[in-house]
Amino acid sequence: MWTWYASRAAGLVSLVLLTTTLLLGVSGIARAATTRWPRFALNRLHRNVSLVAVVFVALHVVTAVLDGYVPIRWIDVVVPFISAYEPFWIGLGAATLDLLLALVVTSLLRTRIGLRAWRGIHFAAYACWPLAVVHGLGIGGADSTTGWVLVLTLGCVALAAIALLWRALIWSDDTREPTP
Q1: What's the CA gap between 93 and 86, in Å, rounded?
Q2: Res 98 pLDDT > 60
């Protein structure tokens, strides 16, 4: 029984931490720095929050498998769409986990694979976050429509949308040709 609560709680904490990671990552791309928060501090915070998010995702996965109330196997959490229980929603979670693992591994190997390859793979983060949100909304059942959970989820979606809009505007500014 405790694993059910732990899994739900870890999933929601993961959502908040992954959203925070996304916001910090976009802030780093935007070169948002002040004298109080230099870029290196922002980058370190992004990395540390990312690591904490990975720990909570791992806790979410482990407790979901150990719960035993529904038949989720270890292979179901890494191979998308093969689960006997809710294959689509569990599959989205598995795809999210796979992308997250690719981000972690390539970040650890960043100096070996080069900045260009790392950046290309790191763009997977833009797919990882919405997959996680849709997974949570779909698999959460009645939990996902509970008032405070819905407010939390929609708040994270709103913050991410604002950050991604900001990122798009920065990207267009970076690619704009200089005026003569």
Answers
A1: 11
A2: yes
